[in-house]
Structure formats: structure tokens, C-alpha cells
């Protein structure tokens, strides 16, 4: 129970931080262009704490899953007549200034991600471990290399495989195959694939005692052993520390794009969209991410917050009218056509898209709850 309470508090802290930074961007940008701000709110629903200062209501509301800044001329102007304060009306400002205000939240989330990436990289010696599947990744401003962490040791002999039939020990170190010395675990798979369907000699050592075994390789290039990787793939920014934060953000975006593309292609090829579905998650998924990473210490936890801040920025840039990206899209079209949409039509479009967005969020939450065991297993 104590762990659940800690997770909930951390969840509120993380969501509150990301929301505060995002809305602070809109708030500061609105003040810069001279737009009137009615309210700066963290959370939704009934007010818990509220204070009015220099014409702006600052409030914390009951439900901590978001927040908003209410600006004159941005959607519903509220009870105050926008005509009585034309200088403070955002909709009367030049399109460039309106776009500046709309993009300020995303910009602040990107800045937060970069700041945390600097902290994480600096505390980690300006290098991070990435998945071995990205070993051929062409990193911007960084260098990829292998770091050997041990011998090539298998952990288990599987039933029915060539290794079991050859009588090799349950655990051991692979020294060579077909007379070729083995330094990295991936070399095992390559040599077995080259000799698939044949017998190969394997030198295996257990506690300094070594013996050669003749092992049959399956047509798929397998011998039936469980072999973990004995090296890490390191992405290093040691030679580019000054720009490490922003270039790592760019590299992270590129890695996300590559991985997401692989998931989509796999789903299309197999017809199984489970992995693609699980790659899109909501508050429930974030809860389990926080639960998993909180035990790894402050630095890994900051890394996750940076990734979440970047994700929030990406989502908000989607061309959905209720989101910042959609608002920028509308403003851009209005600027090109030199004609504004009817205020009522624009408000209707935004409200409808907001309703659909809420439905989508609820759907994602329900999906996460239904698949809650799968989410738990992902972080065990």
C-alpha cells in the first residue's frame, strides 16, 4: 500500500511538472505579446486553491491530470467582453504572435527535456547504453561503440536441441567454434548460421576445465542454448558535451521513429497489432513506467521525465484542433488566406475535436486497464 501511495504521489509530481512547464510557456508568451490572461490553472475540476494577482487567477484544481491557461481571445473569451480590451485580445494580435503563444508550451517541454538530458548525460559520463538493435545507428554528434562486459557464457541448455544431445554442461563459457575464437556473443549466432544443418565443434569451459563437443546445428542455425549478450552498445557524447542535450533529443526522436516504423511494418506483415497497440499508452501506462524506474535512482528517473516531456511535445504538435499543433495549423491557413474563420465555427471545431480527444484518452485508459497484466509484465 505504501508503494502505491508513493507511486501516486510521484505520478502527480511528474504530470504536474510537465503540465506546469507547458502552461508556463503559454502564460509567459501571452504576457510577452500583451495578451490578457484570465487564469493559470494546474489540474481540472473544482478549485482547491485560488489566488488572484494582477488580473490573473492562479489556481490548483482537484484532478491533477493536466492544466490550462485561459487567454482573452483564445477560444471562449469568458464573461469579459473581448471588445472592451482589444489590445489584450490574442485573436487581434498578428498571426506570428498568436503562433508564438501556441508553440510556447511545446517549446518549454522541449527545453525541459534538453535540460534533463544534460543532467542525465553529465551524471553518466556523457554516454548512455542503447539497445543492441541500434548498433548501426548513425548518431548525430555522438559515437557508438561496444563495451564488453564479460565472457560469452550461456545460461541454459534447452530441451531437444543439438546442445543437449551433445551432452554439453548446463552452464558454461563458449571459447571457440570450429576453431575460431569467440569474443562477442553475436559471433555465435553468425557462425551457427554459416554451419546450419551441420555439426560444429564447440570448445566449452566450466570452472577452468575445457572440453570440445560436437554439436548438431538445426536448419534454422540453432543449437538450443540461452545466450545473453556479453556487451553493451554505448552512445557517447564525450567529444560534444556542449551540444549533448539538444543532439541527444534529436537522436532520441530518430530512434523513436525507427522503432515505431519497425513496429508498424511488423504489424502489417503479421497482422498482429498487439505490439503497436501497446506502444500507445496513457496515464495507466505512465504509472507503471514511474513504478518501474523509481527504484533505479534519480538519474534514470530524470531520463524518463525527459522522455515524457518530449512525448508531450510531440503529441501537442499533432494537427488536431484542440491541441497546439492544430491551432497553429488553423492560424497558418488563416494567415495564408488572409481571412479568419468565423469565431463560432472555429470554437465549434475546437470543442468537437476536444470532445473526440477526451473519448480517445478514455479509450486508451480502458485499453490499458484491460491489458493491465501485460503492462505489469513489461516492467517486471
Folded structure, characterized:
The chain is an alpha+beta fold. The protein folds into three domains: 1-93, no CATH class; 107-127 and 243-380, no CATH class; 153-229, PDZ domain (Pdz3 Domain), CATH 2.30.42.10. It is built from eleven helices and twelve strands. Strands 5, 7, 8, 9 and 10 form a five-stranded antiparallel beta sheet that branches. A hairpin with a 2-residue loop joins β9 (199-206) and β10. The longest helix has 32 residues, at 2-33. The radius of gyration is 27 Å and the shape is elongated. The mean pLDDT is 85.
Shape: elongated
Q: What amount of the residues lies in strands?
A: 15-25%
Spans of 5+ residues with little confidence (pLDDT < 50)? none
Helix-strand topology string: HEEHEEEEHEEHEEEEHHHHHHH
Structural class: alpha+beta
Radius of gyration, in Å, reads 27 Å
Distance between the termini: 18 Å
Count of strand segments = 12
How do you describe this structure in short?
This protein is an alpha+beta fold. It has 3 domains: 1-93, no CATH class; 107-127 and 243-380, no CATH class; 153-229, Pdz3 Domain (Roll), CATH 2.30.42.10. It is built from 11 helices and 12 strands.
Offer a few descriptive terms.
alpha+beta, Pdz3 Domain, three-stranded antiparallel sheet, 11 helices, 380 residues, 3 domains
How are the secondary structure elements laid out?
Elements: H1 2-33, E1 37-53, E2 56-71, H2 95-123, E3 127-130, E4 143-148, E5 153-154, E6 156-157, H3 162-166, E7 172-177, E8 180-181, H4 186-194, E9 199-206, E10 209-216, E11 225-226, E12 231-236, H5 244-270, H6 274-278, H7 283-293, H8 298-316, H9 324-337, H10 343-370, H11 372-378
Antiparallel strand pairs: 1-2, 3-12, 4-12, 5-7, 6-11, 7-8, 7-9, 9-10
